[in-house]
Amino acid sequence: MFKLIYQWILRKLTRESEGALVPSLVRVHFKVDDQGTVNSEELDEPTSGVRHDETIAMMPLEQLKLCSLKRCERLREHGIETAGDLLEADAELIAKHFSAKRKAKFTIRRYQRAIRVSASIPEMMPADAMLLFNVHRRHARTLALDSPLRLRRDMERYSESSQGREQLRGRALPSVSVIKTWIDHCSMKQRLAAQECRS
Asked: Which one, 59, 70, 142, 199, has the greatest CB density within 10 A?
C-alpha cells in the first residue's frame, strides 16, 4: 500500500538573465511503500500562489527580523532593500562601508546563509534560521536527525540567555508542530538524496 505525500522540494536553478543561484520550488509527488522506499516524480500541474522562496526573496529587510532597524537603514543606503538584494550582494563590497569590516563581512554572510536556509525549508523564516544556527543546527542534514522536542528545548534554553533575548526581540519561539514540519521536510530530502545515490 502506498502513502501519497505532497511536499515542496527545493532545486537550485540558475537564472540566466541575472546569473545568480536562486532556490526554486517544484511540486513533487512522493510514494512511500511499506519498506520505506521513496519514489518521486514531478507534477506538471501549476502550483497556486507564490512559492516560499519567492516570498522570502521579496521581503523587505525589516520583515526578515535578522537585524536592527538601524542596520537595515545602513544596508538600504547601499541599495539593499529586500532579502533577494542581500542574497545577490557581495559581502566584501558592503563590508568596506562599515568600520569593522571583518565583522560586517562575517555578519552579512551569515544573513545570506540564513536567507538561503529559510528559503529551502517551508514555513521557516530567516530569523528562525539564525536561531537554528545559534543552537548549533547549521545544515538540513543535522536538522533531519533531530527531534522536535529536543530542538525546542535547546531553543528555549538559548532564548533565556542575554544573546537569545536580544535576537528574539520579544518574538515568540516556533512551536513544536512548526519545528516538526521543518524536520520532516529535511528528513524527506535526505531520504530522497540517499535513494538517488543508491540508484
From this structure: 59
The 10s digit of each residue's pLDDT in 32-51 is 455 545 454 444 444 456 78
Q: What is the pLDDT of residue 47?
A: 46
Distance in angstroms (rounded) separating the CA atoms of residues 187 and 158: 24
In the block, which residue shows the cell 552579512?
Answer: 108
SS3 of residue 42 by DSSP: strand
- CA 80/CA 93 separation, integer angstroms: 12
Q: What are phi and psi of 59, to 5 degrees?
A: -70, 135
Provide the edge-to-edge strand list for the sheet that holds 20-32: 3-15, 20-32, 38-42
Share of the chain above pLDDT 90, in %: 51
